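Hello Y.,

Per our agreement to keep a running log of every chain we model this quarter, I'm adding this entry. I've kept the format consistent with earlier entries: sequence first, then predicted structure.
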Amino acid sequence: MSIETGLKVEPGESVAVDGVCLTVVEQRGRFLSFDLLPQTWEITAFKYRKPGDVVNLELPATASTFLSGHIVQGHVDGIGTVTRVRPLGNSLMVFFSAPGDVVKYLVNKGSVAVNGVSLTVSEITEEGFIVELIPETQKRTNLGQLRPGYRVNLEADIIGKYVFAFLERKK
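Predicted structure for the entry above:
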């Protein structure tokens, strides 16, 4: 997979692409290249993307990085689908269907990463969850382009996953 970007990175460094942690194989000018494992292809929304689609890119945090959001690892838990987008003042309410293996870790006002963007869960629904996107998030990410039917990468909050696993083992 190859992506055009202005990032300057070295082979072997990590870059999150729509929330998927990938290792840079090569940089040629403005293009970064990555190898994708068959499992990565299978469990992410990459298989639904077309050349020219806008993706979110993010460099990893370091031990000295100021953390300005939720902790996200770049390990996709599942693929969600936008079911509805509704204006809410200058913001957007976005409704997602999501696999039960993702929803079981979500809590109202907790965090979820959608295409690598850490968001607050507004509400959990029977089919998935709802988030609200402020104008700044719409402008700085590809989430402002979401429409019904669009598939996204989902990552549940790591702390929630650890708590869930701990409690399951206690049974």
